## 1
Amino acid sequence: MIREITFVEAVREAQAEALSSDDRVFIMGQELGEYGGVFRATEGLAERFGAHRVRDMPIAEQSMLGAGVGAAVMGMRPIVEVMFMDFIACGMDAIVNHAAKVRYMSGDQMRAPMVIRTQGGSGTHHGSQHSQTLESWFLHVPGLAVVAPSTPSDVKGLFKTSIQVDHPVLFVEHRALYRTRGTVSDPVAPIPLGKGAIRRRGEDVTVVGIGKSVGQALVAARLLEEEGVSVEVIDLRTLVPLDLDLVLKSLAHTHHLVVAHEAVERGGWAGELVSRVVAEGFDELDAPPLRAGSKPVPVPFAKELEAEMIADERLIAERVRQALGIVEYAR
Amino acid sequence: MIREITFVEAVREAQAEALSSDDRVFIMGQELGEYGGVFRATEGLAERFGAHRVRDMPIAEQSMLGAGVGAAVMGMRPIVEVMFMDFIACGMDAIVNHAAKVRYMSGDQMRAPMVIRTQGGSGTHHGSQHSQTLESWFLHVPGLAVVAPSTPSDVKGLFKTSIQVDHPVLFVEHRALYRTRGTVSDPVAPIPLGKGAIRRRGEDVTVVGIGKSVGQALVAARLLEEEGVSVEVIDLRTLVPLDLDLVLKSLAHTHHLVVAHEAVERGGWAGELVSRVVAEGFDELDAPPLRAGSKPVPVPFAKELEAEMIADERLIAERVRQALGIVEYAR
Amino acid sequence: MNHRTSTAQTVPAPGLSDQDASSRGAAPDVRSDAELREIFRLMYTIRRFEVTLERAHLEGDLYGPFHSSMGQEAVSVGVCAALRLDDVVTSTHRGHGHAIAKGADLGRICAELWGRSTGYCRGKGGSMHIVSMDHGFVGQSPIIGGSGMLATGAALAFDLSREARVAVAFMGDGAVGQGVFHETLNLAAIWKLPAVFVVENNGYAHSFRAEQMQLNPDIATRAAGFGIPGVVVDGIDVFAVREAAGAAADRARTGGGPTLIEAKCYRWRGHNLGDAEHLYRARQEVQEARRDDPLDRFRAATSDLIPPGVLEEIEKRVAAEVDGAVRFARQSPPPDPRTALEGSL
Amino acid sequence: MNHRTSTAQTVPAPGLSDQDASSRGAAPDVRSDAELREIFRLMYTIRRFEVTLERAHLEGDLYGPFHSSMGQEAVSVGVCAALRLDDVVTSTHRGHGHAIAKGADLGRICAELWGRSTGYCRGKGGSMHIVSMDHGFVGQSPIIGGSGMLATGAALAFDLSREARVAVAFMGDGAVGQGVFHETLNLAAIWKLPAVFVVENNGYAHSFRAEQMQLNPDIATRAAGFGIPGVVVDGIDVFAVREAAGAAADRARTGGGPTLIEAKCYRWRGHNLGDAEHLYRARQEVQEARRDDPLDRFRAATSDLIPPGVLEEIEKRVAAEVDGAVRFARQSPPPDPRTALEGSL
Ligand SMILES: Cc1ncc(C[n+]2csc(CCOP(=O)(O)OP(=O)(O)O)c2C)c(N)n1
Ligand SMILES: Cc1ncc(C[n+]2csc(CCOP(=O)(O)OP(=O)(O)O)c2C)c(N)n1
Ligand SMILES: [Mg+2]
Ligand SMILES: [Mg+2]
């Protein structure tokens, strides 16, 4: 049976299913119990599973995440919600020095299976400290998986896997996707981490993205179609592990690559993908792979300013034209 | 007059000069007053400038860095020492959400001129939580300069500029360099941020690095010379701003690139440089640019294990051979 | 280390003249006629501002999150009335009142909320990032705990440069759960910094009550652990707040070190505009709390001190001023998009 | 939320059997003969271990940082003697004593310090990262404040899975400056978690004295701010520690929530091997402090309880055991380099 639900409903259902199918699962965060989550992602879960398993807690990101690690090490499966991705900066030690490393450091005696859920991105004019896109940091932290779904169905399929694997997973949601709709089957099959998906077939160029950027790539693709450019769109779905094969396969017939993310381009994960592609698929490339990322400034408040620095479908389309030599490259 | 001093002596002299030439400068950190710094980088400074300007403080990275921002905003020029780079994870909010952003967010009403000094890297077998190389994160944080000297003279020249500029600077020192020696003139001229240096002329391939990797690249170059390979070595000195021109100029005659850093290769800054080079110098490249970074695991304790995962001169040499097609590429 | 033992030379902060120890004096008498009116003017301005902008926001005329400080006017105004122009204040996501009380320009605040080029931050900041360095409003940090870090640093700067200035951090009760709150109190304590930490305990951290966040809900008692004074004050009474803040500021200014002030008040509105308040508190609770209005308290306390008609006069002027500020914001041009790429590295 | 009100089902932690509430009982009598000997054996093992490995390190036989727990044996042993096998302990950079006291195998600890394949972490951890899950030694965090986070999480796991187990965090006095220390105490308090926070106040955080780190150097008094009991105990007296820890563990186990224990002791050695101690403390201070030796205290307190010769007997056995452990480490092969790339993502 096929249903249509919103992205945030998928997040809620995914967590509900995890809570009901595994006693080791519990949730920690702010405003997620009685209140149901500032984005409604946990609505009704406290009533259904009890306040002890859907735990509201004081504002204390470091110890929230650190306690998650401790609980996971003792056999639980915490879901820790960091309300805005920006606040991960308040809990980096727990994630980077503890969650990601305990298994390795302990010679595999410890495991820290936990899902760190967070949402980020621009579009709601929350200002520079509530609009960042920071998943790129975590590619650089061995021990963590990085997951970033783009559809309700992927949310459920990827979450199912994320809560079952034996290592910590950073589960990144884009705020602007919460109200988007999509169909889901019941049940949704688990999606293995490290398997991307082709969202659109095309001949001339491959555009790779995650989360919100996938939809923007599809919009750009329709735009470019009118210009006679055929775009293939790949949704990586997870950054760690990375489905490089899928990208290389696509390049074998398009020979042109654009990597799109809302994260600031400088130091963003597109650099990792481009470097991998260049090293392992150089001969497939007819032109330099390009990145479509945001400009190197904080996200400003005013919409006119945000539009100027945030990577969007217009930038993706422009990068495609540049990659194909239709227009000349300019940063 | 030319003197030979160690890297750590240069760090000490650079801070002493800043303290004596500018009343707004002060230092905060642990063990740096009476004790003189766990690596002796502040030896004698408290006696000379007073405990109020060379301030020992409790273990509290977040507020240490946050107080640095507040003091800088009110006109001071703090030097904040984070004893091990790994501990930056305990103070990320102050750096990322505050230091780097206050100028932009305030419409240029605020400035946060401060130098965040830290040291990192492997080689002393301190284990996974005291051996990381994390500067790559900060390329992705607009508003921060990232500086990483490789010689005593550069330490002094780059520090002089870092303490004078109007924005925060992350000043990264590699622990393994502290006892290395080098000549300095008196005084050392300030080195502008964003200007790399060619450390060795070569014809066949350009190897780019910072800090400790520069010395390793030079060792690799001598190794390769015996194999008939001529290596040009570039020391970027700063990652933000990035001296792309120097790299592109070098590639114009070597046409081959290897980017070396001790940081984990996945998600490391080499990806940024490779992507820039590919986008802006594709036609100069006769072969795919390669990265020589550490393997995606935490830094283990045992020397046999560390040797297996850390990027070193052997890996750099191997990547050069791969870049030149002497041996086939394998990650 | 405090200024009396410090040997550092004087370093004026940008745009602010330095003062030496001799200028340290007692706080001005709060009951002077002019100041009474000024206090009311500021409290009423905050009220009027929040009411007006909330309506404009609901009408879709401005965008972004909106955290009303309605009901907490006495804390903002009481504290800032105890400060000098060159003392500084740091603030939180709920900072409109703090900015107004510290003297920031209404028009430029409005323009910032409208994201216009004439705003304090040229449209880069918005409602949660107002800054006016000229007024010593060194800004909001909507990162819970952030304002304390910044104020501690500012106080450290004053200490090092031997300026007789005080830094005040406004914080919410939610900040008490955050580790950095404790770190900063401790630093300010051991260094005897000229800082005042004002926790506005408005009963809620979004939907969370103090009792849910700590077994010991008396926030002021935290001070003891750091060896500094902790004061509880009625945050509805502007004069009580003014007195507590004045004592703390004098203490800080004269090398006595920091004070933690807990101002008990109540958050009249939802956490932010659009908050699903009904999920966690009854309308009746709010109505009852609102019966104790800081503006009414002021009127009652000053009825025999202020001739009839005077406050109404002020209200009229303020209403016009707020409307003028809104007009200014609306008529101001949006920022030039190219400025988005300026001011960072 | 504590186990008595929890509705979650029981989830045994890996490798450890679950116990139900009925098994909660009083702590065993510490003065039983066997236990007295065991306490001495453990204290002496720690002492002997530190002395032996320090010498080996100085001789260049092993590498990496080395933080001796010499002088603090009574805290490690007193606390762990009050715990059950399936209770867990988290530790710091100075963790040898904690690991030994919790029952970890000497040979495998040594092998880890030697970076050998037979070490607990197969050479990946080293001196600051020993872990023995089988003994409930869930590891060291040399990130100051880290051990408290992990223990709080472990206690939360026990609470959720309704296991009558206790999590103990060993911390140094330096951890009190770190914000996360306060966050974790608060979480454990409001959730009434079965946790015990043991601050070993050994007088120094590297070169820093408690008085330099906080105005109020009585760490135990911090507990009041969180509404939990704070206890000061003589960390040289293993029986006093044992008693305080026992009471705290019983309290935690029966739903009473966490306790903060400050164990006053003294760090006999430099912060780490090679520390320039002379820069901050006089040799004489150390010599005086060392006159009060936890092992002598034990001997004095038990002179009429333990027949002559018994302790000497134990000392001989321990000495042989430590030498055997060192031999085991030395003779163990280094890890296969390929294992460096296993166990991460
Ligand atoms: C580090 C961090 N965590 C979480 C949040 C989300 N958040 C914004 S306001 C708020 C509640 C703050 O309550 P309080 O401190 O009492 O201030 P009030 O809203 O009552 O003025 C929370 C949890 C945040 N802004 N920063
Ligand atoms: C977050 C962090 N900051 C700084 C350090 C450096 N450091 C290691 S041990 C130490 C002193 C710790 O003192 P204390 O907590 O009293 O433990 P003790 O060494 O006395 O056992 C410091 C500052 C660290 N390991 N972690
Ligand atoms: Mg509040
Ligand atoms: Mg100590």
## 2
Amino acid sequence: MHVVDAEAAEPDGLRLRIPEPKARPGDKPVFRDLLIDRAGEVRRPPIDVRPADIVDLGAEMIRVLDIHGDAVGPWAGTLDAEQLRRGLRDMLTVRIFDARMLQAHRQGNTSFYMQSLGEEAVACAHRRALRPDDMCFPTYRQQGLLIAADYPLVTMINQIYSNSHDPLKGRQLPVMYSSRDAGFFSISGNLGTQFVQAVGWAMASALRTDTRIASGWIGDGATAESDFHSAMVFASTYHAPVILNIVNNQWAISTFQGFARGDSPTFATRGHGFGIASLRVDGNDYLAVHAVSSWAAARARANHGPTLVEWVTYRVGAHSTSDDPSAYRPQEEPFTWPLGDPIDRLKNHLIRIGEWSDEQHQQCVAEVEATVREAASEAERFGTLRSEHSSPASMFDDVYATLPDHLRRQREQAGF
Amino acid sequence: MHVVDAEAAEPDGLRLRIPEPKARPGDKPVFRDLLIDRAGEVRRPPIDVRPADIVDLGAEMIRVLDIHGDAVGPWAGTLDAEQLRRGLRDMLTVRIFDARMLQAHRQGNTSFYMQSLGEEAVACAHRRALRPDDMCFPTYRQQGLLIAADYPLVTMINQIYSNSHDPLKGRQLPVMYSSRDAGFFSISGNLGTQFVQAVGWAMASALRTDTRIASGWIGDGATAESDFHSAMVFASTYHAPVILNIVNNQWAISTFQGFARGDSPTFATRGHGFGIASLRVDGNDYLAVHAVSSWAAARARANHGPTLVEWVTYRVGAHSTSDDPSAYRPQEEPFTWPLGDPIDRLKNHLIRIGEWSDEQHQQCVAEVEATVREAASEAERFGTLRSEHSSPASMFDDVYATLPDHLRRQREQAGF
Amino acid sequence: MTRMTMVEAIRDAHTVAMERDDRVVVFGQDVGYFGGVFRCTQGLQKRFGKHRCFDTPINESGIVGVAIGMGAYGLRPCVEIQFADYVYPAYDQIVSEAARLRHRSAGDFTAPLTIRMPTGGGIFGGQTHSQSPESLFTHVAGLKTVIPSNPHDAKGLLIASIEDDDPVIFLEPKRLYNGPFDGHHERPIVPWSAHPLGEVPDGHYTVPLGSARVHRAGGDLTVLTYGTMVHVAEAAAAESGIDAEIIDLRSLVPLDLDTITTSVRKTGRCVVAHEATLTSGFGAELCAVVQEHVLSSLEAPIARVAGWDTPYPHAHEWNYFPGPARLGAAMRATMAYR
Amino acid sequence: MTRMTMVEAIRDAHTVAMERDDRVVVFGQDVGYFGGVFRCTQGLQKRFGKHRCFDTPINESGIVGVAIGMGAYGLRPCVEIQFADYVYPAYDQIVSEAARLRHRSAGDFTAPLTIRMPTGGGIFGGQTHSQSPESLFTHVAGLKTVIPSNPHDAKGLLIASIEDDDPVIFLEPKRLYNGPFDGHHERPIVPWSAHPLGEVPDGHYTVPLGSARVHRAGGDLTVLTYGTMVHVAEAAAAESGIDAEIIDLRSLVPLDLDTITTSVRKTGRCVVAHEATLTSGFGAELCAVVQEHVLSSLEAPIARVAGWDTPYPHAHEWNYFPGPARLGAAMRATMAYR
Ligand SMILES: Cc1ncc(C[n+]2csc(CCOP(=O)(O)OP(=O)(O)O)c2C)c(N)n1
Ligand SMILES: Cc1ncc(C[n+]2csc(CCOP(=O)(O)OP(=O)(O)O)c2C)c(N)n1
Ligand SMILES: [Mg+2]
Ligand SMILES: [Mg+2]
């Protein structure tokens, strides 16, 4: 009788747990909790695997590149040397582009910028694993999706500068690109909303017996938003052909990932309660990202349903140009990140397999730098935030398909 | 090279899956998919168990009463005969109360009613496992929480009739009770909102080093709502002392539970992605409900964190007095429900252990009927929807703590 | 022409739109197999298959969110929110996403959705089955907000909304589903079959968004209103003997300013009526617009008759509802003003 | 008395409220360890411990939802939404729950929350860091909506809001955080230390909710406004030479009707100004109320100066923002009206 009450040795009272990161400014960085498998160790299931049969993978970490720079294990072999070199160039382009845009921000050419330093592999490799007409629903940190889709850098910069050639006509915050042709859905400032929209796009594709799939993106912090749940519920219920990507870069502005993750060991496990195939991957390993993205895309396209992927990476830079991470995390933390740098790792691999050299690398960097520089100069000719823009009258366009009377009156009042 | 693409034998095109229940009107009811364990088979972990160590329990079903009516296994033994008889009376009261109120609705004494026919064990046994000052955040189908808290039936009916003694002054839809004293949070018409509020209440209790815990309630259909996610995230992150109850009664109005559950085998598994201890229980087994509720309450009170429980039951009646289930499910479905009737099962158990008889049962039914009848007549003396109400002027009260000027003007305009 | 209830007219509009354009898909809670709790989508799944009309999980935000994704793909979703009172979980997807997608992407992506929802009180629904949230949408640039008062307009407006390239909030006064309710809850129910506006043309037609309708011509005073209150205004005019010109706005955004100003210029007096709570209701916008454009014609302050600034109460529904007595009193006071 | 920025005044209000009442808890995204992206809660966690001030997951609905549960328990949560533009996911919890809890439970449970959020544009924040959603709250019975225009009022109003027994939406014009910005973005920034309203009393005081402040007395015309636009109005008055009476409403619900009507009766002319989009903005309510109460004193239509009915654009921010030139033009036109 009353077994339970006897068993419950009651404490003095309840106590709320407020999560704390392992290290704060001044502390030594610690990554003790990070679950890492050795490269090549995690199995590669068939694409029609039942989600229940790979539940263990949610707590493991798929990796291809080992410490020597070799590609090992069942996930290796999706890319030839040419593709690997292209991947390296994609990532270098993102990194050099980011650096140039940060400089442009300091110079006042734009009001704002968000870099993806350290996370380049995720978006770059993923995009190359999709088909051109698949549709991504990105956040603000997936510039790699555009760059790996060979989207013109100058058009990106035009948007960042809000200049006279900005395809978004100066309306959007810098980096909030949109390009239907490049399979890149219009970025929203509101976290999370795109995740369920990606599911809707995928549902539409399936409703039309199309072959295109969707790929939705969300940050570790933003998984806490309700739209994450909506996306999971609808993807699970309708078996939508979508890849649901969580970019776990460890931080959400000043808040460490423990606030969103809570008591679950990984973000990938969030998929288990929905019967969605869930994988956790070394996001700084270009080969692993490409292999898993290809797997998930093939799975979706073959009508085996959605895949949730946690890409484990690290936000090396500040959250945005408005942020200073030294206020909330150890300054050395980025440099002790155990998964290394994605560019270095792919470069080392290419060298190790004899398909690259330091000289080639230097030359490639120089070429990319020149390309980015030229794109920036070209964009500057069309103006910057401080100079030329699209006509302010255009502000009244596209609110509706056709200008309604009340907006026509307002536009007149505004002097246009 | 390109392993994945080769592997993906592409179909003619994608196809969206729209879930379908196994049976529709005219079909024979089927419950093939229902995962049921034999009574006594599922283990009873210690209350401080790590959620990861009981992941298997999310797909099993904790049951105590076997087909003979014996209480078996590790979850048996939390209740003595006196408590069991009280439980039986609680459930009978709910059932007879519901029947009386449906009749009152037909007579026009109220505009609306929602019964909990077939689900009585869940709320009744749960409430008896809590302490009086714990706080429940119910939905509209947990009248058992009030009845098992010995809340006056006449006050419930006053609310249902919106009469002059309605504690909610005619403001709320019938059955949307509120009683702080009975540990019963004000019911909202909006599905799901209370689930995260329960977590907040529990967090507050822990912030104040109190010993009271919260118990949140949600239907199978409403788990699809975003507030479910919010509740899970906050409970997981702050380790809140809360029991999160999902009443899976198989239907959400006309929509079968497959729409909310999607590809996950059970609702209990939804907890796994959050590292929350998750149990699945025969909700028509009073002893199992009581045992698991006691376990979860003890766990929360001892600061071991939240528990998610899926109570598997069946909505025998219509969704509400506005609904007719014969339009969307086989009419025989309620009668083929494999987990039986909670009242019959507890009655049989009591008889089997020699603590009850058919005569006592009949007498008990007669007593409860009399009690309910008297309560209804007493309430009728205070009016019904068609007769006496609280003053309409009271509509302007409690919008704010004190009446602001603009509402004072409106009240005057209304003639009060 | 066929005599129809408003529910039948809405069903018919769906059918016409789905037949003409296979990109039109219809979904929402209980709308598929069952046909909706008010039966507005009954028969669609049977007729068009479950890939054109289907049930959804109970998640309003998800319903609108996936509809936006489908719209971006190229479909034209028409979704149902079971009650307008339950639209708030979807508010972010509507306001931050659907409303702004065309603008923020400079036309690269659009959200041609129709979001239908039963609105208004009068069915003893209490505070969560009675609300009129229209002004929470009219404030949002990029949305259109439509509300019919009869079967004829319901069909024409719904077809126009589904065919419209922008997101449309389509509010259905639930108390009008089965008859032209004029606020006299104590009287027997009048069916649409007995009302001229229950005559609904067969097949395809549209009522353009942004065109008001003069429901009753009159010279004494203008009543600006929409939805259920159109019929209440008619009753109030009849009972007060005031020769009111009753304008059924039909579409709040875009607004038919010409019809409004022409009428008020003629009558010199104006009453605005809606069921929604008074403060910051759409009536405020109407007052602002009328005084801005025709102040010099105004012989009396514009009176607002609206729901009180309280939640919609259950038992005191008829004390809350701005019925013909209250509207008539405001009309008389406005006529008496010197 | 201390000279403070608005950020410092808000921090100070938190400190005073938390010291006086240990039921006050403060939380939101990045508000704990870091002290908020605008640093309005900086130092609170250090001072009061992480059980009084803490970070949360990024889930606005959850933040408000748990705050309601805490309020029901007996605490007084004061939460931050990082930008007003991100409040929509929490809209259901605010509108359906916090606003109606006291009424629906007849006082059995209450939700004494304060929900703070930076609002308004002027920082090149584009459409998702610039919005002014006040009228989406003023329409909701049960909510109070407050917006200070200076450090003195910010502190007094925030303390009053936290101590208030009802849910309060507390909008902080972010462009005013560090100085009294008057719309002249091309001019050097003026700090609060150079402004008399940067003088903030020490310790506890309140500015009662529902009391407007005459920011500038004048006889020609009344400007009804709040937040950043108070300072824009001041500039417009100075530049146009019009002797405007500028009323800083401070609290929109409850509204200080007396101060408004007294002023318009005196001046006979009225301009309403806000940053929010025009249609169904709070200006509409002000027009409705003014014409209702003092129509006979009005010598000109009430003009509304507001954000255009478009999303807030990034590069064209200053074409969107209703600055002193636009407000001045409306004031002149209103003065010239015969
Ligand atoms: C709905 C909403 N709430 C809050 C914000 C403010 N915000 C912008 S980015 C961010 C952190 C996001 O972190 P994460 O999802 O981990 O993405 P990351 O920046 O690391 O790529 C926050 C809180 C927002 N943009 N939208
Ligand atoms: C936010 C919201 N959306 C929709 C509804 C309409 N509605 C009321 S009950 C219900 C079904 C709920 O089903 P479930 O959660 O399984 O609970 P049950 O009725 O079976 O107890 C629906 C859709 C609502 N009340 N609130
Ligand atoms: Mg992150
Ligand atoms: Mg159910």
